[in-house]
Specification:
With 380 residues, the protein is of the alpha/beta class. It has 13 helices and 16 strands. It has 2 domains: 85 residues, Urease, subunit C, domain 1; 294 residues, Metal-dependent hydrolases (TIM Barrel, Alpha-Beta Barrel). Strands 1, 2, 3, 4, 5, 14, 15 and 16 form an 8-stranded mixed beta sheet that branches. An 8-stranded parallel beta sheet has the order 6-7-8-9-10-11-12-13, with helices on both faces.
């Protein structure tokens, strides 16, 4: 059955046209400048953009553990999270889950809870309860003593589509300012300075002992399973080069200009957090998305922790002071990300592409999602 949308501002790969498009089965069949009558659905001049692709969101965990020590049914939590994504125009979701972390990272990342959550994602998907397409992005903590065993257990899970090299040892990368990190975490929890010093020393010992062996191990497993690699929170050119040497092609959330420059030099894709742009900077005091955009180093976005941030980024970059053409602005959350993670069937409105589409209108300068199609089916 064919569905035709007309009287729309259609955001293509390199321009915006006022016209119509047709969907048949799960693909885009036709894009045409001009109006079509008959049974076509009038979009009343709203924008039609490709479905947004979010390669990194931690949003699922907050639905699984909505309050400390209160866990929710994992399949139900996945459905709730999926609803937030669809309402934000996100049609392809990479749920980011952590491997190699210790008990101090919180209940949601406890190994037993991780198993339950993966089972919940698979159950919700198999039951047809999810509207967006969900994949898993494994956040792999390289200093983790248990990382290799967890990779062997979890990387082969069928939803796996991306893995990232991470090192959250306090005092470097995202947490370069050690006092700021401690004030926001362990000191706030009431830990004594002695206990904090012991934990920091242990983390640094694990970094020294495990990173150099876990990095190539992860790279080999990712290659064996055909999984793209990203590198996360790089601070120095050396951090980027080390990741690139083992196969990472995505620089996710570089924390300095130096790291972003090295990633570009090596032909990698620079992905920043959507909240960084929308809030006007990094909450950790690191390089801002705006600074990277000013010097032409910003390629795309991931939501990190606010799914809605991506649709706002899609339109914010087209405004002052940035002034990107709208097509290029929208590409930062669609085509650029699709290409980076190897999803070549989507991310662009073009004949033959998967019909993941979002109808958007602007209200007071803010984008509002009016309708969503996933693989040709209207889901919102």
């Amino acid at each position: 059955m064919q569905t035709v949308l007309t009287n729309a501002q259609i955001v293509l790969a390199d321009t915006v046209v006022h016209g119509s498009l047709a969907i048949e089965n799960d693909k885009i069949q036709m894009v045409d400048e001009g109006a079509i009558g008959g049974d076509a659905i009038d979009m009343h001049g709203d924008y039609i953009i490709p479905g947004i692709i979010d390669m990194h969101t931690d949003n699922l965990e907050r639905h699984y553990f909505p309050r400390p020590y209160i866990d929710w049914n994992p399949a139900s939590a996945t459905i709730a999270h999926d609803g937030v994504c669809i309402a934000s125009g996100v049609t392809t979701v990479f749920d980011s889950l952590s491997l190699g972390v210790g008990a101090a990272s919180g209940e949601a990342r406890n190994l037993d809870n991780l198993r339950r959550l993966i089972d919940g994602i698979e159950q919700a998907d198999e039951n047809g309860a999810l509207r967006a397409q969900h994949f898993i992005h494994w956040r792999c903590e390289l200093p983790g003593p248990t990382l290799q065993a967890q990779l062997e257990e979890f990387l082969p899970r069928r939803h796996t589509r991306l893995a990232s090299l991470m090192d959250h040892t306090p005092g470097q990368r995202q947490y370069k300012n050690l006092d700021v990190f401690l004030d926001r975490t362990w000191r706030r929890e009431g830990m004594s300075e002695t206990a904090i010093a012991e934990r920091v020393a242990q983390r640094r010992e694990h970094q020294e002992q495990y990173v150099s062996v876990n990095r190539p191990y992860l790279a080999q497993m990712a290659q064996a399973h055909g999984i793209p690699l990203a590198t996360h929170d790089d601070e120095t050119a050396e951090h980027v080069a080390d990741a690139h040497a083992v196969g990472a092609r995505i620089a996710e959330f570089p924390v300095t200009m130096e790291a972003a420059q090295e990633a570009r030099r090596l032909g990698m894709v620079n992905i920043m957090g959507g909240p960084n742009l929308i809030r006007g900077g990094s909450y950790s005091g690191n390089v801002s998305a705006e600074e990277l955009e000013e010097v032409g180093l910003l390629d795309g976005f991931a939501s990190d922790y606010v799914p809605r941030s991506l649709i706002e980024c899609a339109f914010r970059l087209a405004e002052a002071p940035f002034g990107r053409p709208l097509a290029a602005s929208v590409a930062s959350v669609t085509r650029v990300v699709a290409e980076a993670v190897g999803l070549h069937d989507r991310g662009e409105i073009a004949v033959g592409k998967r019909a993941d589409l979002v109808r958007v209108s602007l209200h007071g300068g803010l984008p509002v999602v009016r309708s969503v199609w996933v693989a040709g089916q209207r889901v919102a």
